[in-house]
Design brief:
Two copies of one chain form a homodimer. Helix content of chain A is 35%, strand content 28%. The first copy, chain A, is of the alpha+beta class. The first copy, chain A, has three domains: 219 residues, 2-Layer Sandwich (BirA Bifunctional Protein, domain 2); 96 residues, Rossmann fold; 71 residues, Translation Initiation Factor IF3 (2-Layer Sandwich), CATH 3.30.110. In chain A, the strands form six sheets. In chain A, strands 3, 9, 10, 11, 12, 13, 16, 22, 23, 24, 25 and 26 form a twelve-stranded mixed sheet that branches. In chain A, strands 18-17-19-20-21 form a five-stranded mixed sheet, sandwiched between helices. In chain A, strands 4-8-5 form a three-stranded antiparallel sheet. In chain A, α2 packs across α6. Chain A is globular. Chains A and B meet through β2, α2, β3, β4 and α3 of A and β2, α2, β3, β4 and α3 of B. β5 of chain A pairs antiparallel with β5 of chain B, so a sheet runs across the interface.
């Protein structure tokens, strides 16, 4: 049961896996590429989901639920979409098992129960949703249609990693329909800002907002907006995307509406999603060699209290004080656990809650009640003695402080890892020695983009929104360029 | 766009479908047996889920998430379980599509991408979860393990009905592990009471708590506890089940724990679930010939306000008053919508919100502001004029009153539809003419149970908890019997 964590410097990738597994966030499962999200990790996801869900509702969206299965013929309808997802689909071909006549107690697929048309386990739901929208949208009065779905999806990835890339994952997918292109673009941009707001203010992770190059767009989109974050190993991670889909799905599924002028027009669409992948980003952004470091605003547990005592008499004294503190903290809406399990020693508990990234730990012994309790913050590992009177107010302020400190720390790291380069040799050198985002001129061609990827594994993460226009020459081809774009090696 | 609802008396089944479809709860989908849960229906489900989720957490459970897929060999491990679910499984056999070489733009299943072992889309998660528990449980210190999952499941039903029986449905499934049989039985019973509490106090639907006969038990259970409700057509509906699974799954998946006495023992299990089927029960229990009637405590929308006015000047007067009322209601935690859409007339809106079962409707005209507004309750259709001062308090009380009235009405109906019979002819006559629950002596044999089902379609819904012991003879076989059990034709 060794709970030691691999050091970042020795093996970053193993450090990440250790944190996810030993921190109790998730576990491997018996199904290839699928993970089990354990209670601690799921509570984290619930906290993230609840904040996002409120943001979606506050911006006028409602939730609905569409079928898990997409008939194969639906996937075919939007050509780019089909090409994008066909290679990684879980396909249901039969609807019944039967006893194996050769081997008692074994089951085989019943060959008489083959489906007429195969069903795809949804890799994303545009196709099944737009088929429904055809019936729901008749007139401009039915628009805009602003719907979100929380669901599981399956993409048969060949190389999987806990949270970052799993065959099944949990996500939300917004699917909206609009009367005009302008409205749809406005919606796609609005949701990008909602995502950025969430990731920055709750996950304490600064992001760069931008658009993808045509090459990196979602299958079926005319424009893909994205937020990009930087991990501690200098790799980028796409934290969320929002797509302007034009009329592609409306045309594929024949979804028209009657305008105020009594004309039939195709509807304009967006879709946008974030997933449990965000948990992977969260882990990699803030954690350290002792374990997870979780931002207070979404941490499954904000405060843990560990009693220090000898014998039942001291325990009773401590208990009494702790119960009062717990009540005070809960009244302020702070989640708190009193861990008085006597099977483990305080030192073991301290290490355990550090590993789990609980933002604040309070240790209380019988003497501390008069002198003040010991409060340790996870982010800086600083300890201080705090009088019990007014403790809840102190903790409340401390949680805010930790939240801001995590953001500022990540921002400082990110800012010091955006490097402007002006030559190909510089590009390669920065990528190899420093990593992070590289701001460089690019000639705008798909060919150059792909060659750079082949040679360095770096991709264009985004063209930042409101990007400064600047004359220059492409670092790779030497051709003229109007702006710098952000490159990075990415998860 | 006809929104007329079929009358219960003319076609109960069509009435139900009309309510679900025209009330905006759900829609058929292009995938056989799968439905789309529309925003109004999904909000209802969210409200139900949130209450249940809190109840589960208050009783010590946490949520987690396990894979959608169950390897075929896992399903085989518990024999009864395999037999119970094999016949209705969606089976994933391939993980890739490819372009059809015969037809451009079409996709076919890639024969080179066949899975070594087929994956079953979970019909329930005992197998995949107990496989994980094997790694999670080593010692008595790891017990009890109290986990719940909110998920979608798939059972390939041949005859489906919106909400009541769909191929895919949403549910929660609790899966707990315990050191002793007593503890597991206590847990299974506790969760039955939680379900009964929820269904009675939030859904306003009285239930009978009992246990199933061996014949009707969940596949793999030693005891199945259930709550049974009665619909307005005299048919019963199983609203939730909780299973004592004994050591069946622990043995199938080799899950043992070290006792305090240092011995290895198999773990004891429970599982329990309720699903979107509850929405079907809700619709059938309270609604009437004008549409849905929803209990205030879980209604997606509790109050709707419709303005009555002529011209923009009156509208402004009304608006001002309504905004104050909306603020007051929201402050009390009451959900409210101001429908001032000017595309439809007040009469149309009245009918629409009746159809949707909104508990309270307020109509406000410019004169009503001084004299009082018109408040209509959905359950009794009574209208009254209520002064604007103190309106929020009045509405708050009215919502409670509606909640209790719905429960009492359903209870009265249920109580008048439990009929004790003492002969086979009486049994058949009551079943045909009156329906409802029939309380009758049964000889305890599977044979009799099945013959009664064959002849009348009635099944034993449950043996009520704390059932009175009473000497008698079986209504069907004439053999001696120690207690009455409840029969009914069921959904």
């Amino acid at each position: 049961m060794g709970n030691e964590v691999t050091k970042r410097a020795s093996d970053y990738s193993q450090w990440y896996n250790d944190l996810v597994l030993k921190g109790g966030l998730a576990d491997y499962s018996a199904v290839r590429g699928c993970m089990v999200i354990k209670p601690y990790g799921y509570t984290l996801w619930e906290n993230m989901r609840d904040v996002l869900d409120k943001m979606f509702k506050d911006t006028g969206h409602t939730n609905a639920y569409f079928p898990l299965f997409v008939p194969k013929s639906f996937l075919e309808k939007e050509e780019g979409h089909a090409e994008g997802f066909a290679k990684e689909c879980a396909v249901v071909t039969h609807y019944r098992l039967k006893g194996d006549p050769q081997q008692k107690g074994k089951l085989i697929v019943d060959p008489d129960a083959q489906l007429e048309e195969e069903l795809i386990v949804r890799p994303t739901s545009e196709a099944i949703i737009w088929n429904a929208y055809k019936d729901w949208i008749q007139s401009y009065r039915d628009l805009p249609l602003l719907i979100n779905q929380w669901a599981n999806v399956v993409r048969w990835e060949m190389r999987t990693r806990l949270f970052l890339r799993t065959a099944e994952f949990l996500w939300q997918e917004g699917h909206t329909a609009h009367a005009t292109a302008e409205e749809a673009i406005e919606e796609a941009e609005k949701m990008l800002h909602v995502y950025a707001d969430f990731v920055e203010n709750y996950m304490a992770l600064p992001v760069i907002k931008g658009v993808k190059t045509p090459n990196e767009r979602f299958a079926g989109a005319l424009e893909t907006y994205c937020i990009e974050a930087l991990m501690q190993d200098g790799k980028a991670l796409q934290a969320g995307t929002s797509h302007f889909l034009g009329q592609n799905f409306a045309k594929a599924f024949d979804v028209k509406y009657l305008t105020k002028e009594n004309k039939q027009e195709f509807v304009w669409a967006t879709s946008w999603g974030v997933s449990t992948r965000l948990i992977g980003a969260l882990v990699m952004a803030h954690s350290d060699d002792e374990g997870l470091v979780l931002p207070p605003r979404i941490a499954p547990l904000q405060v843990v209290i560990v009693p220090i005592y000898k014998g039942p008499e001291q325990k009773m004294l401590v208990d009494e004080k702790v119960h009062a503190i717990v009540a005070e903290l809960k009244q302020k809406g702070i989640s708190v656990k009193y861990d008085d399990n006597d099977n483990t020693r305080p030192g073991w508990k301290f290490a355990e809650y550090e590993l789990k990234g609980v933002p604040v730990r309070i240790a209380i012994g019988p003497k501390d009640i008069e002198n003040g309790v010991v409060v340790a913050r996870r982010d800086t590992k600083e300890k201080s003695s705090v009088p019990a009177a007014g403790l809840a107010d102190h903790i409340s302020g401390l949680l805010d402080d930790i939240q801001h400190n995590l953001y500022n720390r990540a921002l400082q790291y990110r800012e010091s890892h955006i490097t402007s380069v002006n030559s190909w040799s510089e590009f390669k050198e920065v990528l190899e020695t420093k990593g992070g985002f590289i701001s460089a001129h690019w000639d705008g061609s798909r060919e150059t983009e792909e060659k750079i990827k082949e040679e360095t594994k770096a991709t264009i993460r985004c063209i930042p929104l409101n990007n400064a226009q600047e004359q220059g020459v492409c670092v790779y081809s030497g051709k003229p360029s109007q702006q710098r774009v952000l490159f990075a090696v990415a998860y």
